[in-house]
Structure prediction request, 571 residues.
Amino acid sequence: MADSVDIAVLGAGPAGMAAAVISANAGLKVAVLDDQAVPGGQIWRNVEAVAARGDLGLFGDDYAAGVDAVADFRATDVDYRPLSRVIGVEGADIGGDVLYVRDGKAGRLHAKRLIIALGAYERPMPFLGWTLPGVMTAGAAQIALKTGGLLPKRPFVLAGQGPLLLLLAAQFRAAGAAPDVLLRLDDPGRKWSAGKHGLRALAGFSDLLKGLKWQRALSDDVGKTIAGVTQLEASGGDRLAAVHWQTADGMAGEAKAATLLVHDGVIPNAQLTRAMRIPHRYDAAAAAWSPEASTDGQLADTDWAYVAGDNAGILGWAAATATGAKAGAAAAAALSAKAAVSNDVDRRLGRARAVRPLLDALYPPAQAFTAISDDTVICRCEAIKAGAVREALAMGAQGPNQIKAFLRTGMGPCQGRMCAYTVAALAAEAQGTALADTDLMRLRMPISPVTVAEMAHLNETDMDLPTA
Amino acid sequence: MLRRPVEPEGNAAVRLTIAGQSVTARRGESVATAALAAGLQATRNAPVSGEPRAPYCLMGVCFECLMTIDGQPNRQACLVPVQEGMTVEPQMQRPSLGVSGDG
Prediction:
């Protein structure tokens, strides 16, 4: 018998859980597919276990908010399928099918409506030496802290920009591992122009206070803070040994390091919506591409698929619970079920939207003002350097798709997750065009590698195949 | 690199073998973080350049943590929770089709 539900939700973070709760409470049959083992997404990663071991205090109020959200989700009769990796979707006459891999087998789930809430990931920030063992993203180290209780080895250098960088620094400090060196890649030139967004941002007053608190906490324990860093380099043989930097006013410095954590803000995880050929727009303020959708999250050019949370554009977890609820309610309404949206939803969303222009103006991606040297690997999977991409462009490559054909950028297992933005930026740089006029490389399904053994189970009926 | 300040005990402890070494991990963490905590410098060599690589994002995005888990190669170690008795190997060789004359 075909596996079928009213609504399939992809992702069990703030948005996915909110969408699932509201549509399940409207009486619909809902399934949630998520690649993690437990609900919460990245922001609330492992929150149930962290609460149980009494460590919530390390991570602050935003993290603790996940306890109730996960409990509400667990209390529903949603068909929750953890450790499920989505590889694609196919449209059908009514609704469509989600293709996914779980437990070594590909499966097909039919859904009348689809809600995509696959979240965000950290903006890849290529610099010389970023592929060395010992260099990882700050978010990765946060995950290791939330799940395994791991801490960065010293000497520990934290580098990058954005509100999340400050939060992470505060969390590591609370866990007894304040960075020895903090390198701030905030663009010093942008602070004044950010001022004009200040008045509007007052609507998100508590968020601003939070930021100030993190800033203050930082100045206490960090060994050394260097502001205005515009060039970053990691060096070592088989692993990281030192970090080198330069500031906008020409000061150079270096420090021995066992761990370098980097962070350059977050971007929507739009792999699936891009592979679905939904039109995407470049938001210059956020410096990111996001799928075109209605205010309820219904994706452009589809009649059955919605997007919610940071997958739709970065607004943070509180907004994600709101856009998740809105998409869940809209999908339920489309199936003639009545969902009760709390009147708090628009207020939460409004607050997040009010503070965002200020945050975007204060924290432009470091890449906007850091030059990528020719020797820097930009496609980690295929070990392709910026110089090779520039050479291909000089030889007449027309854009990211031709660069891919020339060099294989984006053709390794990560399928461009790590290099697509950089390739687009290099193409725009060479052609003298705006990023908004440059396409990201085209994506095709499956959006995640799948083995033949896994695929063999896809249209399985009652025949048992051996598991890989 | 990452360190484990407190060894997991009792029900929280999961024992597995990583690169031939018996290690204790915390229930709920991934194979990738367990490998990092065990002091493994690189979890694989990049198949194109041969350079050592280690987990970078720990959330399923970068594919740098591909390891051989219980005999199955190229698994994203950051998406696989640790389990009692698991055997995990780094992927340090360049891929080969295993036929004579290859490579």
Q: What stands out?
A: The two ends of chain A are 23 Å apart (CA to CA). Chain A has three domains: 4-121+267-340, 125-181+210-262, 372-437. Chain A touches chain B through 49 residues (CB under 8 Å).
